[in-house]
């Protein structure tokens, strides 16, 4: 009986662990160095479609660049992310935060390997800072979201992300660019 209970608990633990994404935490400075382009941008439209092999759904978001912080950014960029909804089919990828139309984000981006003029977010959610007005009217940015674990030297822990004033985030990016 005890063996069955232990086995059932292991199945539950393994099943819950498999629904999360695990990241190796990256500092703002590491994200900056890994990115080709860093921008503040506002989402203007999104659409999802199947990949060419019809094995996964991909969401594309068109964003208007408000402020380039690293690299040569065109006035508009398209960011490609795994997951989305096509017809009656949906795929969710833990660690990927899709954009809402009108939402502003500070993004750490790399050119897509597909050479299709799209970009991908560096480090999944780590490179996607949602920009918002915090208490007291301060503009802040945060890259945290539920369902993400962090792998650190002591093992796994919940990834809470980083929240800071936007001005401080921009300053750290500029500092990393000069290192």
Q: Could you explain the architecture of this structure?
A:
With 179 residues, this protein is an alpha+beta fold. It is built from 3 helices and 13 strands. The protein has helices at residues 2-18, 28-34, 166-177; strands spanning 21-23, 37-50, 57-70, 76-82, 84-86, 89-91, 104-111, 119-121, 128-133, 139-142, 148-152, 155-158, 163-165. A hairpin with a 7-residue loop joins β7 and β8. The longest helix has 17 residues, at 2-18. The radius of gyration is 18 Å and the shape is globular. The N and C termini lie far apart (60 Å).
Number of helices: 3
N-to-C CA distance: 60 Å
Assembly type of the chains comes to single chain
Biggest sheet details: 8 strands, antiparallel
Number of domains: 1
Q: How much strand content do the residues show?
A: 35-45%
Over all CA atoms, what is the radius of gyration?
18 Å
Assigned CATH class = Mainly Beta
CATH topology grouping: OB fold (Dihydrolipoamide Acetyltransferase, E2P)
Order of helices and strands: HEHEEEEEEEEEEEEH
Question: Rough shape?
Answer: globular
Are there runs of 5+ residues with pLDDT below 50, and where? 1-18
The amount of helix comes to 10-25%
For the secondary structure, the number of strands is 13
Write out key terms for the chains shown.
179 residues, alpha+beta, OB fold (Dihydrolipoamide Acetyltransferase, E2P), three-stranded mixed beta sheet, 20% helix, disordered N terminus
Summarize the structure.
The chain is α+β, with helices and mostly antiparallel strands and 179 residues long.
Give the helix/strand layout.
Blueprint: H1 2-18, E1 21-23, H2 28-34, E2 37-50, E3 57-70, E4 76-82, E5 84-86, E6 89-91, E7 104-111, E8 119-121, E9 128-133, E10 139-142, E11 148-152, E12 155-158, E13 163-165, H3 166-177
Helix pairs in contact: 2-3
């Amino acid at each position: 009986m005890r063996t069955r209970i232990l086995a059932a608990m292991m199945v539950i633990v393994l099943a819950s662990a498999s629904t999360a994404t695990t990241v190796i935490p990256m500092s703002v400075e590491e994200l900056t160095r890994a990115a080709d382009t860093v921008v503040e941008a506002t989402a203007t439209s999104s659409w999802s479609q199947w990949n060419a092999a019809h094995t996964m759904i991909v969401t594309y978001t068109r964003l208007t660049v408000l402020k380039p912080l690293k690299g040569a950014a065109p006035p508009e960029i398209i960011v490609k992310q795994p997951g989305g909804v096509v017809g009656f089919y949906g795929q969710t990828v833990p660690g990927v935060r899709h954009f809402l139309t009108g939402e502003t984000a500070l993004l750490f981006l790399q050119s897509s390997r597909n050479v299709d003029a799209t970009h991908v977010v560096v480090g999944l959610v780590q490179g996607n800072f949602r920009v918002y007005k915090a208490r007291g009217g301060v503009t802040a940015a945060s890259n945290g979201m539920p369902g993400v674990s962090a792998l650190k030297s002591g093992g796994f822990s919940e990834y809470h992300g980083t929240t800071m004033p936007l001005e401080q985030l921009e300053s750290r990016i500029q500092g990393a660019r000069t290192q």
